[in-house]
Amino acid sequence: MQLTKMAFAVRAALVATGVIGMAGYAVQASAQAAPAASSTSAAPATPAPQDDATKKAQDKKVTDLGAMTVTGQLAALQRAQEIKRDAVNVVDSISAEETGKFPDPNVADALQRVPGVSVNRSGGESSQIAVRGFGPEFVAVTVNNRQMATASGSRAFNFDVLPSEIISVAQVNKTSSADIPEVDIGGVVNIQTARPLDFTGIHGAWSAAGVNSNIDGDWKGKTTPKASGVFGWTNNDHTFGYMVSATYYKRKDTQINTQANSWYADQNISQSAGLADPNYQHVAVPETLQSNFIDETRTRKGVSGAIDWKPIDRLTVQLDTLYSSYKVDNLQRAFGEYGNTNDIQSLTTDENNTVTSFTRKAQSNSTMANDYILSSSPSYEKSYQNGLNLGFDIDPNTKLSLDVSSSKAWNKVSPDGYFLVMGAKNFGVNPTWTNGGDNRPPAYSNILSTTDLTNLDAHCCNAGSGNNVTNKVDQYQLKLDKSFTDGMLARLVFGGEYTRQSVTSVSYGTPNGILCNAYCGYNVPVDPNAVGAYLYTPPDRVKGVTSAGLPDQWVAYDPRAYLAWLASPAAYNQLPADKRDALLAGLAANGGNLDAAINPGSYNKVAEKQKSFFAKAELEGTLWNIPWGLDLGMRYVNVTSTSTAINQPPISYRIDPNDTSNGQVAYGGLQPQSADGGYHKWLPSLNFKWNLLDNLIYRFAYSKTLTPPQLSNLYYNTSFGTRPNSLTISRGNPALQPYTSTNFDMGLEWYINDASYLAVEGFHKKVGNFTTLVSTPTTFLNDSASGNPLTWTLTQPVNLNSSKIYGEEVTFNYQFKNVLPDPFDGLGMAFNYTHVSSSTSLSPGLISTQGAFAVPGIGNSGNLSAYYEKGPVQVRLAYNWRGSYLESISYGAGAQPATRTSYGQLDLSASYAINKNLSVFVSGTNLTHEHLYDYSVYRNRFLYAEADGTQYTIGVRGTF
Questions:
Q1: CA-to-CA separations, 557 to 422, 487, 807, in angstroms, rounded
Q2: Alpha helices, DSSP H only, in 87-149?
């Protein structure tokens, strides 16, 4: 019988178990034969808070690290290893090196060094994580076991809102246990902050640094500040303590990216362009070519506080508060060359029907324009979390705890953004597009001058950008924990939780398309003086990112002056009477200007109520005189939801005769609607741990988990895409069910010493209810110019597909203390590699042509770091890599698959302790100036390339 994928993964894990087991027995036998060495174990300066499951004391032997006091990165590795070793479920973690000093300034950057964890990068920073190939929507994140709201507009957690200085441990639970508050398929990350009663007396830390970020990797331009401080006091009796912290971080940088937005496959250029050549059928063409240069300032502020109080011996009160703000101000200057299949007069293709070149017409209504684009998408996310935990010891072995928390996040600067275009049509020349080949952006040639300030025409689009999002979470948890000292039953845990969450989203923009309906089409000349026009010179070109045809300069202008001019008589008196009258009516309804206003047709709200109950038993004993532990539990989840929306459907549509790539829409009245959804599930879990030797552990885990439907898919409003070559209608589905998964994990861990171990793990997940976008053609409205009916593509998410995801992880950490002579005995290394596959991993070409299903995000990842710690010196060099993966099955207006290529980044950090309370440090990220690259189906169908440069930090740090 042919082996299934699961059987193969299990067999691989068993082979590895045998190999490591024999090595472990050999090492243990050798150690027993040798004379016993005296050993000392240096306690960490700050004990890491742990979940109840990891607090249980276990006898274990540790290797002597000598007389040195283990602090810094070595101490962090030891604490992370101890957490992994003591836990019954499969756990990996990152620990703070000491108070206020997390290994990386960004939490997601630190987590990517955990086996199986990879990051999503944007703007030179990591904001979200994936675990074992499952993206951010499949990974639950809690702070002190409490759900924290974010204003991302999705269930994905944005780590960039969390100051790393307040974190003690970030723990990644890869297998489920019934008492873990969340049960996501990818895993559950719990961020633990430091507790005051972990310290004695007055304690604290501070740091001050300068941050410099540059696209070419040099230290130049503006250096921005970064500072943090932590202060705490705990009384001698350890009955009362408090901690407060504050952080400030500012970074200025420039990003360069080039994009094509989307690709349209199976295009009949012969028909759309009026050509007779049959070779111009079934062709894939890009939507646009746009080169973007973004000047950005990111500012992060945070304050936190914690109080621990034991008013009586049996009662512990813990109070936590956290406030964070993350502001992003940006200005994007872009040069765009929008595509239009109607004006292609000749082309060439390769064997995959991908255009390798095409030439556009010199004189037509659809002649390409040189677009001078200015845009801004500001973000100002604020969030807080307040929590109260009461723990009462009924007796020495029984504890009753109540946890109450409230969290809110909001981002309300959508009205401050804009996306504006003016341009000049390329009359009299034939713009020619040339494919750049694999991993290179394409280029246009033979275009008009981009520096002529006298040849400017108004075009589009609107004020406002993005969505205003508000997310509110209230959570209540009650738990009874009973320990037993005799017999096989070691612990019982019972509890219940109630969570109430609401997410509201609404966009802002210039109302009802009044700007574009008036000016789209490049027919109104612009006075360059009235809009503050000037020539913009972009930064130096970046190979592989910058298009070869990018002009050396192009026109830019004052965006607010442009908006004001478009609303002035100097502009609208150039319009035809019907357009002028419509614009004036729109201006009068909008206060006489084109400023952003709320778009009521974009309103969405999802309100959820979740009730959970759980029971868990921990058992322990011996099998063949070998200790074992078993975590066996059940969790019941019941969720009800209500989705509310306000729709505003179009009532008329016409193709702009002056710009046939643009559709103009008039909207009707508002139509409120709502629908209910929900589900309930029983979720069993089992974690088995078998201590084959003092330093050799076997694990097996089984569980059922779920991931709630994506919020955007539960939204009930309807949106319309109005490009003539891609008329689309998108609608949510409040009745969606959660993704469900049956999970198996197995592994073996060999602990060499307290900073070194080798682990091999295999996992298998059978995931069902994948949300799939189903598209069907539908007739809606007529073209008001021709009277012909319009065919739109209606897309809606449904639960349809399933897949098996399986893989293996290898981790090897080693500290050379007892192997190398002085001074090299401070060396150490850490390596991990995760291989992930899927039963539905198909080539993007097959997905594109046959509509087959595949799981986005599935890909391999690995990390390799070398560190040195001896005396006052600490150095770490780390290489973080993520293999290529499918980003989306249906990307952009063309609805084609998108793939991100593999990416690896080299980072360096170092510090020198001047004395026991003062040190200097330096760090650099992306030292090799790597770039992000996306493509559609085939590598020469370019989608996106991004360069973010290198970031350096130099500073001083103190403790007391």
A1: 9, 78, 53
A2: 107-111
